[in-house]
Fold this protein.
Amino acid sequence: MTNNKKSIRVEIDTYRDGEKTIIEYVFEKRELGERPMALDVLLQAQAKKIPDLAFRFGCRARNCGVCTIDINGRPRIACRTRVREGDRLSPIATLPILSDLVVRRDGIARQLRNRLPTNSQANELNVEAPEEYHQLTKCIECYACLDNCPMHARNFTRGKPTDTTKPPSDTQQGYRWGNPFTLLKLQRVRMDPLTTTTVRESAVDTAIMLGLESCIKCPGCKCGVGINLKGVVIKPLLEAANNSGRIPPE
Amino acid sequence: MVEVRKTIAITWLNYDVIVVGSGGAGAHAAHAAASLGSQVLVVSKDPIGASDTKISEGIATVRASGAVDDSETELSTNLQMAGGDLPLRSITNAFAADSEHAYDLYRVNGLRPSIDTERNKPLSLPLPLGGHTKRRSVGHENCGVAFSHANWQIILQGQNITYIEDAWFLDLAVRKSPNKNEHGHSINEVVGGLIYHAANGELLAVRASAIVLAAGGVSTLYFPKTDTMRGNTGDSYAIAARAGAELVDMEQLQFLPFCLASPPSYEGLLAGEPVTASFLGVLRDKSGKVILDGVYLRTRAECSAAIMRAVEKGDGTENNGAFLDMTANKKAPLSGAYFEKFLATCLPSAYQNVRQALSKKAGRCEEPWEVRPAAHYMMGGIRVDADGASVGGPNGDGVRTKGIKGLFAAGQSMGGLFGANRLGSTSLTEGAVFGARAGRAAAAYSRNSDTTQNVDLIFKPLIATHSQFFGQNGTLSATAIRLALQEESWNKIGPVRTARRLQEMETNLKKWRAKLYKIKTSSSTTWNQSFIDLQELRNMLDAAGLILASAYERTDSLGGHVRLDGKQISSFATPYSVIVRSISDGTYVARRVIRPRTALKKIISYKIQEQKRLLMARWIRLLPKGIQDKILLKRYQAIMGEDLKAQETFPGAPEAAIGELTKP
């Protein structure tokens, strides 16, 4: 049983100035039977072996969405994912690496800059939102959903960032092609009872412009906090696009 | 051997207003300034919106949401009384005045609360939260995450707003103004700031006449004994103090009493609030002796103090905490089921933490929880007026001409609103109210000032200082010093303090400060973690120095400041605040300013009410079990309704205010 051991050995991929080094780290359990989270391992490695190890974290309680890393090649929220002997910790493969486990996240949000109109203050604000709306604001922006996304992959060649330090497009513009997160933001605007018809339609236009047709043949995306992305984001957007005749039906 | 240093590129930029921080206060400040036509730069070291607002319980004070007769005076007085008369009246009045509508900007940007259709207002929780005398706290689906979606929207879609994330605001550029104040002293004024854009690997020298610091608190000084965001490294306080600004009430840190002490992954995370203990919950020391009863009626500060005093006496539990024993609630044959429901619904995320972290029996409240306080909120901060402008001077309210002209603060960065104790649900509103006020004031100030001409020389020493931190030769690591600082901060300037510990901390701080220039850093320009670590350590050292000097000055206990070697300051004593500033690198001086006291009649009536409630709680606990159970059943049913099935609620819902005897 792994649990009776006093330590857990993991591998951490670190990147400095474009060079990759795999560092083996042996986590020393702090109490009997401890099952540490990936974040615990990173914090201990920083304290004991690699003082300037670069990684993001925030709340340690799966709320802030910044500590996402790949564990054995799959995106995981580091503060709430337990590690096992031999696990490999690396930066998420879907975004360009800045240093060690830190990736550049900015190009994702930035692609929606000035594309999601805010409702005017003159509106009557005392309106309830439907339950589906609250499904969408559950998103903690962890970017786990970028994994295996064919739309996001169009931003890169051979499925990997073309450049490991900078997004391929202008950093002030964000990525050309979309992803489940940006589609969720567009769908949020559509579900908001205060959104005007014009804005609702322009949200569909934006989704199409960001490459919504990639979703037609895609089996679906996976959310880091359990939102049914296919059901509450992709399907309604595809339906709206079909209805307006701008995307061929599935 | 000569090491070749890479030089870091410097980009010069011009803005009207820089906002540091992208949480609730930062977003509202940016929006307000931009709406008045200012060109605004938002700088955030964490991803946009990844702030304490995002991870909060998502309950906001909205005045008049629950009652027509919820006057500004009443809310302002609630804040005054809770804060031990330390808050500034002008600031609590501003909060009370704006708190009815400031929150609407969140709603314009997509925050959708439930609506009270009869009153056509956001639906407030059915009972007032502790310390509030009216229902005025509005809860939200998905807690703080729902607020952060709105902050994200405000910043990303804002006209006239430019934003950068992964960027550390390092220091203010301040010059002595050619103008003098009425006393003939020269005035310090902001001319911009220096920023490390880690993602781009460059320094940004930004000329701007107004800067709003909205960069959060300092709880990371106590990591891992905190439930807040990692980024709370005291940046706002340190940056302001280094520029010569005054700060206020920095000894007043709010510790949440009931946080987890183990296992390590969960250390510091919230387990419950005083109200969680419900009618029969008590605090016990390691031998089972009751150290605090009537827990559900106590303030956070009282509970924290009780736990830490037991630990000091050697009666603490294995992980230096105490036992929160709620088993009597659970055992009651009739009311036990109601308690269980209450526990699961009043703070779901906290209860979730407990169930994941502790044993199954503890999760069912069949055995006591081991709890320990954790750092949560800095109630002090930068000394400002009701528009968030930096002020200074000997009198209570301070004047702008003695502050730093062009410097503004909002949210947790500012002081003067909460004093010695912060009421539940007020911090999200604080961000909205004072973010907007500071943003407006900054825009107005920047329009009328011309402080961006011929200022490049002012940046020179800043650029030189910070460039040296790239590729610094040395043998030490910032991480090692930070870990020592965090441990000692808990022991010496944490939830309990003594003169001797403060002295020891002072020695430590001097020692660590001297080491700053012996830390080895990389010369990389893109995401240089060792440079970032050094900068954050420097801020934490300054913030610790400010807390320390203030804690020295207040020799007795009040609110979040507990002096084991002093007595409890009476509510009838003349209230005072501690003002602190840095006079040179690592040297801080503190002094007192007298505050007006709430009318004696009000204090006495409040005290009598409080005693009555505590006696009642004690009396119920001592009744024969059968009678006790019947009384409690009625009480639970009065608040939660008789049908347990109907009680699926969200954070802080009706039951969260179970301690209050106020009727909905």
